[in-house]
């Protein structure tokens, strides 16, 4: 029961992921995604009636921190990661607005 | 006959919570810091960083949920909402889709036709995005991540509102509840309360909903009102022309009083939500809910009743003062110092409201200290200054929070009671105004007022008005 990924789907997924793929890359990505969906079909063969959906692999809950400021002024460290910087801000291509 | 249309409105309200730190890291949430000074690897989405949930966010969200009659979701969790935009450095927002913290609530609003319930579909916790500033000259945008990771709750109503007035009443009610809980300051101008408006129109009597649009960028009650009127008309015009309303997100431009479509088809809204793997589920016990309920501060209706009993002020005064928690706090603090509740109420309802209206301010923006207002009330009460000087001094307190005792002293504003000085001025005014004197003696009461005014001006407004009137009558009889 092999899954088939259409050209439209791979195009759409590319847009969502902000990726521009060459024709060869699209074909490769299609093949990969088809395999992934096949694997999910395998998982779906398992009867999970009455089992709570699991949202986390560890049986832990309620991990919190108290509302106390622990971080100081880190702007130099933060901006060290900016591909482009202008004064104390990240500079990016103009967005709408 | 022209068709009658009904407007159907639902709101998505975002409220920034009043925590000291962000939702998933120990960075400060303080507003107005220099760009990127409140940032760390977590809130700038650096690879390998891990979020840890701020407990206070859950407690504020629970408090708001309970105060809006919601059911608390006792096993709840976070999900990732995926989208690319420079204000969102992780390329996903941590939010809640499948198990939001609260559901199925309502608030009651007052409308022209009585009390109405606006139902709340759900409320979830999420993180705010950074702030983009557009550089007109360079064709670039600058990003400040100080706001990235500031905790928000989003309250999604059912489409239960039918007019701009109902929308404003709903927002005011929500704001009052949240402010009273101390969960947020809810300032629309600073963006700590933001509303997206979902609006459709349909012919009166129709059961089904029309196609809706969503409007964003509404940062004042006035903008919300205008945007609702504008969008209603736009949709009706389309329908009347036999066209269809397109489901889209529109951005309101308050300067142009016009909205325009924001997202194109290529920019599809497909958020591909999935459970957030970096955060564990939240399990909320009955005990925890009971504790939050017990900690609930005094709400407005309780405060109103207490004010009437404890301070013996009229219903009307109590209603106006308790409309905002900030105003009520000022009232209580000032009364605690000077012990004159009715006078405090008068200053707040009179001059304070007048200046707020003139300056387009909200109670949240008030800066003056209760100490200085209390001192002013004492000065006026003791007869140290007269009532018109008191109003001038109050303006100084309102804008600059001056110490009225010092200010009155330094500017020589004390009321002049000195019989000699007053008599001298009154005599001069009488001598200079034979016509007014004649008019008064001829029975025109008004002429006395004119001479009083002149005397007050001659004394730079500081004379004791009672004494001036007494002297005028004495010298003219």
What does this structure look like?
The complex is a heterodimer of chains A (97) and B (477). Chain A is mostly helical. Chain A is built from three helices and three strands, in the order ααβαββ. Chain A has helices spanning 7-16, 23-44, 75-79; strands spanning 64-65, 85-86, 89-93. Chain A has a two-stranded antiparallel ribbon. The longest helix of chain A has 22 residues, at 23-44. Chain A starts with 6 loop residues before the first helix and ends with a strand. The mean pLDDT of chain A is 89. Chain B has three domains: 5-288, no CATH class; 298-410, no CATH class; 419-476, Arc Repressor Mutant, subunit A (Orthogonal Bundle), CATH 1.10.10. In chain B, strand 14 (249-253) and strand 15 (258-261) form a beta hairpin. Strand 3 (89-93) of chain A pairs antiparallel with strand 10 of chain B.
Give a brief description.
Chain A has 97 residues and is mainly alpha-helical.
The geometry of chain A reads as flat
Spatial separation of the terminal alpha carbons of chain A: 48 Å
- Sheet with the most strands: spatial strand order of chain A: 2-3
Distance between the termini of chain B: 74 Å
Largest sheet of chain B: 9 strands, mixed
Quote the CATH topology of the domain at 7-44 in chain A: Histone, subunit A
Please summarize the sheet with the most strands of chain A: 2 strands, antiparallel
Continuous helix count of chain B:
15
What fraction of the residues of chain A are assigned to beta strands by DSSP?
Answer: 5-15%
Number of domains of chain B: 3
Class from secondary-structure proportions of chain B: alpha+beta
Labels describing this entry:
heterodimer, A: 97 residues, mainly alpha, Histone, subunit A, 3 helices, 3 strands, B: 477 residues, alpha+beta, Arc Repressor Mutant, subunit A, 3 domains, 9-stranded mixed beta sheet, 3-stranded antiparallel beta sheet, 15 helices, 40% helix, elongated
């Amino acid at each position: 029961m092999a899954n088939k990924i259409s050209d439209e789907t791979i195009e759409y997924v590319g847009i969502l992921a902000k990726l521009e793929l060459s024709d060869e890359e699209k074909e490769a990505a299609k093949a990969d995604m088809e395999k992934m969906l096949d694997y999910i079909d395998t998982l779906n063969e398992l009867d999970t009636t009455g089992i709570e959906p699991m949202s986390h692999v560890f049986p832990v809950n309620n991990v919190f921190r108290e509302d106390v400021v622990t971080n100081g002024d880190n702007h130099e460290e933060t901006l060290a990661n900016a591909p482009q910087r202008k004064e104390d801000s990240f500079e990016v291509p103009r967005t709408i607005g | 006959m022209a068709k009658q249309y009904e407007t159907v409105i639902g709101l998505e309200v975002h409220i920034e919570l009043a925590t000291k730190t962000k939702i998933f890291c120990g960075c400060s949430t303080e507003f107005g810091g220099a760009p990127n000074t409140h940032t760390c690897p977590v809130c700038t989405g650096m690879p390998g960083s891990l979020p840890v949930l701020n407990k206070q966010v859950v407690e504020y969200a629970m408090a708001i949920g309970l105060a809006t009659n919601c059911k608390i979701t006792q096993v709840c969790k976070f999900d990732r909402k995926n989208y690319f935009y420079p204000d969102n450095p992780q390329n996903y927002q941590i939010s809640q889709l499948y198990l939001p913290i609260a559901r199925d609530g309502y608030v009651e609003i007052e409308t022209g036709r009585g009390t109405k319930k606006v139902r709340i579909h759900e409320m979830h916790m999420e993180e705010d995005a950074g702030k983009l500033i557009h550089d007109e000259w360079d064709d670039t945008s600058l990003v400040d991540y100080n706001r990235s990771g500031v905790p928000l709750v989003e309250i999604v109503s059912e489409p239960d509102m039918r007019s701009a007035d109902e929308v404003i009443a709903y927002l005011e009610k929500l704001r009052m509840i949240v402010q009273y809980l101390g969960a947020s300051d809810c300032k629309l101008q600073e963006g700590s309360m933001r509303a997206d408006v979902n609006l459709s129109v349909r012919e009166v009597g129709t059961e089904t909903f029309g196609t809706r649009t969503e409007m964003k960028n509404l940062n004042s009650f006035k903008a919300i009102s205008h945007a609702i009127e504008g969008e209603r008309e736009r949709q009706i015009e389309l329908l009347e022309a036999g066209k269809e309303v397109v489901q889209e997100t529109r951005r309101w431009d308050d300067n142009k009083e016009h909205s325009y479509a924001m997202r194109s088809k290529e920019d599809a809204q497909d958020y591909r939500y999935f459970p957030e793997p970096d955060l564990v589920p939240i399990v909320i016990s009955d005990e925890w809910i009971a504790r939050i309920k017990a900690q609930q501060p005094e709400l407005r209706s309780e405060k109103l009743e207490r004010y009437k009993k404890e301070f013996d002020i009229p219903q009307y005064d109590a209603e106006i003062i308790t409309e905002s928690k900030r105003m009520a706090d000022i009232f209580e603090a000032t009364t605690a110092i000077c012990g004159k509740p009715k006078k405090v109420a008068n200053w707040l309802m009179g001059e304070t409201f007048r200046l707020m209206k003139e300056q387009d301010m909200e109670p949240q923006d008030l800066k003056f200290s209760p100490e200085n207002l209390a001192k002013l009330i004492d000065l006026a009460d003791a007869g140290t200054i007269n009532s018109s000087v008191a109003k001038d001094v109050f303006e100084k307190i309102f804008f600059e929070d001056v110490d009225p005792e010092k200010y009155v002293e330094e500017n020589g504003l004390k009321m002049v009671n000195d019989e000699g000085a007053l008599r001298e001025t009154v005599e001069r005014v009488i001598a200079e105004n034979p016509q007014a004197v004649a008019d008064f003696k001829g029975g025109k009461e008004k002429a006395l007022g004119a001479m009083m005014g002149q005397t007050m001006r001659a004394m730079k407004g500081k004379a004791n008005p009672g004494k001036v009137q007494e002297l005028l009558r004495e010298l003219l009889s």
